[in-house]
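User: Please predict structures.

Assistant: First:
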Amino acid sequence: MKVVKNMEALLPLSIDQMISNSENTIASKAICTTDHTDIRFFSYAKGESISKEFQEEDSIIYVFQGKLKILYRRDEEKILSAGEMIVLPSNVEYGVEVLEDAKSLNILVK
């Protein structure tokens, strides 16, 4: 495979198996990283957070387990539960607060 990593070709895999929950931390596993695309699975422990920052890419965050609060712009926020997703345009400052142990698939595209 040219750009996909950390996955076996032609092998079905449950999305829950892509990344394990870790206590008191946030972990990520890269699936694809190119000049124009970054695809990662994230595991978040309840109570952890990611400070607001700008991304040059459009971001899609799909929560497939748990609950996250997405903080963006100056004082806006959305709560995402399992099965929900949000699109954040490039150059919009955003961060994450973890409300419940969670897992997500994040896709960043330039």
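Second:
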Amino acid sequence: MDDRRMVRISKYLARHLRHEPHRIGIELDPRGWIEIEVLLQAAAAHGFPIGREELEHVVASNDKRRYAIEGNRIRASQGHTVAVDLDLPVAEPPAFLYHGTVRGSLAAIRSEGLRPMSRHHVHLSPDRETAARVGARRGVPVVLAVDAAATRAAGHEFRVSANGVWLVDHVPPSCIRFPG
């Protein structure tokens, strides 16, 4: 399968497993799962046929491991704007985590901290390189260091998704180390 097809399938999955399942007439269960065959049938019925092998290839080769397959079900690992409970246990984070953003967002972050915006959680990366790639999607990246221990001490619980993204409800400005 060529790279363009892989990207198109991945974006299609993100749209319908994280944000708009209703657009193709599917319903995710409370944990975000859907039967693979139901998803494939709905995609085909809405003009975007995906083969089972293509789906499995996209899931297995996605460098960010955005999707998980368990038995005959699939779900997005995190990043939902629709109501789901991924049922991730509270986890002990490393001392520091990282968040990629752009300079234009810094004033709001300095004032309000990191907020989930339209998602359910703030997404944090385990290393600076990953955070820089995330920030680069919106422009020149700025990487913020998050004092995870201080964030926990402030009463915020961390969870980690299947693909290693750390999730928290909010990071107060006092727990963020800003560059320069």
